[in-house]
Amino acid sequence: MSRNTTPQSSMEEELDSEITSIRAELRKLHHRRRILSSSLLASDKLQTRLKAHQSATKNTPTSLSITSLASDISPLADSAGKHSELNHHRVAFSATTFPFTDPSPTTENPHLLGVRIDVCTRSGRYTKPYYILLKRARTGDGGDGEQNKHFQIHRHTIPAFIAMDRLERRFLPVPSSATEAETEEQRLKPWKTRARKQDLWGLVRELRRELVAWHLRKDAVGFLREKLGVVRRGAGDYDDEGVWVRDVLADDMVETRLERNELGIIALSATTLEATYVRVEWEDGRVGRFKISNSGIVERAVILGDQGRDKAIEGILTGGDGRVETVLDRLKKTKTSPE
Amino acid sequence: MPPPKSIRAPTTASLPDDLRIASTTQSLVKALGKLPRQALLDIVFYWLEDRNVASFPPYLQRDERDKDDDDELGPYPAERTIDDVRNAYQELQMRKGAKREVIDRILEGDWRHGITMRQLAMIDFRHLDDHPSSLRWTALELSHIGATGAATSEDSTDFNATACIPRVHASTFLHKLQQQISPLVKSHYYLARSRSLPVTFLRVFVTNSPYQYPRQTSDSLVDSSRVIYVAFPDSCPFIYTSVSTSMALKPSSDTVATDPRTLQRIVRDAIPKALSLPHQRYTLKATSLTAKSLGTLLKLRGPGRSNQANGAFSIFADAVLEGSPLDPRPSDTVTPEEYLHQPSELDKENVDITNGPTPDELPKKSRGPDPDTRITKKRKLAIQSRFGTAGSLLSSAPLDRLDVRLLDSPDQLEETGAEPAQPVLSLTFAGSDVISGIRKLAELGLVDPERMPSWMTGEEAVSVAVVRGGNRVTRDSG
Q1: Which of A203, B255, B330, B367 can bridge A83 by disulfide, Cβ–Cβ 3.0-4.6 Å?
Q2: pTM of the predicted model, to two decimals?
């Protein structure tokens, strides 16, 4: 008996793995079918044909079978058409709005205005959408019965390093209708307390700029790392060559290091999540850091070696067209050119 | 054997890394015993690595020669070279055995001359890193002093929307911290990066003031109530501090200024000052969040998306409401699970999705006849709209305690706002995950999901709240 168990269990294992692989394959196909069917339903050709057909049948109510067919398909096709239209708006305008109802029974302002911001990254994919939900709060009771409403940020999903409270103070100031009793100074110097209007456009524009700049910086750092070549550390892989670090920008906790390159750079990574500063380390012990501006320019660079600062390389980093994407090309050029 | 006697004058320097605690100290066994055998061995191998061995020298035969009067035969004869020591631990690694064996080998064998403060800090930190819920953490917010008065400057063109996140340069920061507290507190610092969380930890061990009579018992150097942890999460204007649980139990008998609690407060107060730069001073603000799990703090006061969107709004934080603009599937046909688990696979429909984590979770849900079938569809929808993904399996930020003070009068008929003698009702929820517990209650029908106030859904993301009329009241004083 004991002899039999080993081949049996191995066979079972084999079958199990086969079953799981088939299941995975099935899932994959299901997924693909759903994507394909909804793309087909949302496709331009089908939508235009369907619309033409619908308008035609509306005008001439003829055979029963065709109308029933049309009504059978139409809810699905309708929702697919609406959805693709929505997606077109999101792709085209990047910032879209939607209404949202706060389900809390105790809230005073259940009707919220949602703003959704979509950012496309280097890979051609979209990130998780960013949301702000604004509520319309009342500004005191005006006295004259007229209730001023103003926007306030209620909830949002913006990362913490973008100071939403500062943006709100700047673009959505609370209208100061309550301060009726003007002080002497305010009356004499009205420009000091000129009532700033709420500027929702400005808020969204500024916020989107910050988000896009952040993703561009992240992409730039990822691009530089990719150009140098990234090696991922596998499980139980104890090769101690090079500097293994965890990338702050990556979601996974896998340690990576750079491939050996002719520039002698052994580490290049963003120091923090917002990817403003990039840390570079060379084989010979030089360590540097440069700052990426919101427009993708290397603004400042500091490189320290054993003999103090390496001004030449600093100049190369910030010189040229200053773009962060071409930093490596600039370094390479000086490396190859005869000195 | 005790560390060699030396003359020590009071200084304002921090405790050195290589200050040795006599290996005969009883509490060391306990401190080391917190770690499992493998973790202990890992740490020992780290000490014995070529680049580290100078900081953690083991006891070798040549040390024995220096004091030849020592003729006792210990259970662990001193090894000849460092390689021999390594081999000894390799051997322990190979064979299974008790943890005690390793601890004895460390304390009575290779580090019989004492464990240094740094070694102890590493052991302690390893335990914390493996058990992130072993302490209670309080989140504090860093904010600019005078930031509110700067409203006029925000009109200017150089408006910048980045939050106040101090750039921490480890050695500079420690130097400044030391400058702040050295006249009052003698301490030892250890800075380390977590292996699993995006957090940098600072372990500060506070002993008594520098002017106290030279030597304290070596037990006090192991005392965990004198340890304060400060965690710096990446890229967000928050810091977390640990409040040692055994702190309250020890009312120190000597003067007020030297009990561990006071010393810890001094350290805490010094942190924002040490982080400050000229013209850029920081202060710490309370954020009403204390929890055992560091994961919770990272979720509710962390660098990510979910700081300001919880409870009903967690669907936005987890982006389970709608897909990317390239997803052809109408969003009402896709389950939140799919959005959460396959965020990037929508676009690469041809590529393998075999490694998606969904397979095991989804079928299980539909197979079992569990709560799903028992609760009505209406209530299920109500629960989903109230809680979003909070307290569900999809995403969790477990709160182990939720304290709520209700300021409403119980009859709720007449508005007695001006009445001074207002009844106050305090509620305390405790458990492994309070919000998911309330969600369970709602699923069982014990809580009406439509009428309950929003603090019950975790929307406020706090562990202490004052509530009036179902809404959280915030005091500006913090």
Answers
A1: B330
A2: 0.80
